[in-house]
Amino acid sequence: MKWSDLSQGRCPRCRTGLMFQYLATDLRRATLMHDDCPHCGFHFEIEPGFFWGAMYISYAFSVAVSVIFGVAAYVVFDDPALWVYFLCIFTPLLLMAPLSMRYSRVLMLHWFGDE
Question: Whole-model pTM?
Answer without folding.
Answer: 0.80
